[in-house]
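Action item from last week, closing it out:
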Amino acid sequence: AERVLAAAAEQKLPPWHTAVSLPISGHNVHLAAGFSDLRSCGLVRYRCDELRGYDHLRAWLDHLVLCASPPQGVALRTRHLAFDGDLVFEALTPDIAGRYLADLLLLYAEGLQCPVPFFRKAAWEYVQGGMKKARTKWFGAPNAKGRPESGDIWHALAWRGVEDPLDDQFMQTAETVFRPMISHLAGEKPG
């Protein structure tokens, strides 16, 4: 609690809204976003739990928007605090942040047409520890915690008839989503 109070001690700025225009497949896509918790030191987020891939991804997406359309008087820094550590992302140029956002929005657009093999838990395990870990998260294992990600009813519906969706497209999608984030992670330290 002390770390959160110290990190969030700065007064919040007024709510900030933006629209980012990104070229995707020959079209300009407009992404609208807003933050009600900006401070001059940047974004400070927290969750009372251990860090998970979800926390990394959410902090990264918010950070990309912050950097793609930088507000005046705000440091382009995102910090996410959790029980077991802190994530820190430092400034990116608007061009780089926009490029990463465009890559993610292209995946989203593809997913509106047909299922894209992005399984966030298995994908996170893949980029962290390889395909063996991803398969354990997807298919489960005798002593694994929780149920396998393949047991999710929406995944089962979307991927019915596909014996193993953890293929080359899965690996490429996981790399597209998570690898830039990992390469720009300025800090992940114990709490």
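Closing note: The chain has a mean pLDDT of 91.
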